[in-house]
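User: Please run a holo structure prediction.
Assistant: Happy to. Please share the sequence and the ligand.
User: Here you go; the ligand is FHN.
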Amino acid sequence: MEIQEVPVSAGQSKANPHAAWFTQQRFGMFVHFGINSIPAGVWKGVPMGRNWYAEWIQMQGNWPKGIPAAEYQALTKQFNPVKFDADAWVREAKNAGMGSICITSKHHDGFALWPSKVSAYNVMNTPFKRDILGELSNACAKHGMKFACYYSHWLDWEHPGGGLPHPDEFKSEPRHPKRTQEQFEKYWQEKCLPQVRELIENYHPAFLWFDTWAANSSEWITEARMDELIGLIRRLDPTCLINSRLGTWGHSKGYAAVDFISMMDNHFPEKGFDQPWETSGTMNRSWACHQLDHEWHTAKEILTFLIKNASRGGNYQLNVGPLPTGELPVQAIRRLREIGAWWLVNGEAVRGTEASDLQAQKWGFVTKKKGGGMYYLHVLEPRAGAEIVVRGLRGVKQARVLETGQALDVLAGNEHAAITLPAELRENNIAVVAVEV
Ligand code: FHN
């Protein structure tokens, strides 16, 4: 995917008071699930082309023509994830330290995971006939987890007016015909706005995660359309947060038009922003289940992304791509549980932290307890007896290993403090030192 980074302009910060829980939680789960989970990256025995995004198979299978719409949409006849257990998904997320679950209510293919009255292209017209969003939102409520929806507002490959990939970015043959504004407006009024209304009225998502990535989207997602969509959401539920990939590069207010900034896929910035922000990232290379994608991040790599963002005041939304059966893949479960084991002792060093003034240390990252008084040093490659020099750290009252409470020696300098890790330390994950100041 083409990505474009858009800088936040100074003085835009108008944090929505309803976003407090969002910045507090730091860590959430993203779920890409739908009828595209069935072929899982392979169409009629041939791996899809161009990139690893299995949810793009309608366009990238049978390359370069793509899969004919009717043939792709016939996947609804096979959609029967009988092992889908919303409670099990939520328990895995919660155990890993996550505070929210955001699911692809409708991805680019246009298929809805709920009984939408707006479009028959939905889960009730499959053998499964169960309201996936309803079950997941109920399980989230039961476990004190925030429920949220991804909604592809620009691209929709089912509605005759819905957005199509840009021909220059997506070199399929024959090239897609270009939509007219009238066609797109019909889609917008007939499907997009009414479905967003349904999502809010039926499931009360804590946030809506919209999806554009510069390219040509602002031709379709114009400021007027964005304002119409934002207005609808604000009227129906002022607590529902909206992300910047609504298309804010095409909005005169920029990021200030929405509640939180979403980075481009898997982008972990070197600096934070003066508005709530997050990175959504994959566990392997695909978002939806891909049967040939075996390049999984380790739990430690995932934790490093999380901590890096937290040290800059940002969130991390980690994706899982459930199997066609509805189960989470074991590769994902294993990683979530490893993360959960780390979280069990170190979670306070991530949740409820704010952007840290002590950054870019050689040995790792520093997070800061909201309101100050405590820094957390995340040492990426801890060695027994090693000295950790923390540039900029002054006024240390005490330092201890977060897991054991073991007190550590601190040598204070003018512009730094040196802390010695315990001689008996055995740690192959990230070690956290809590420093009271
Ligand atoms: O095209 C989508 C992609 O399939 C996936 O949903 C990601 C998630 O951030 N968003 C788009 C590409 O950036």
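The chain has a mean pLDDT of 94.
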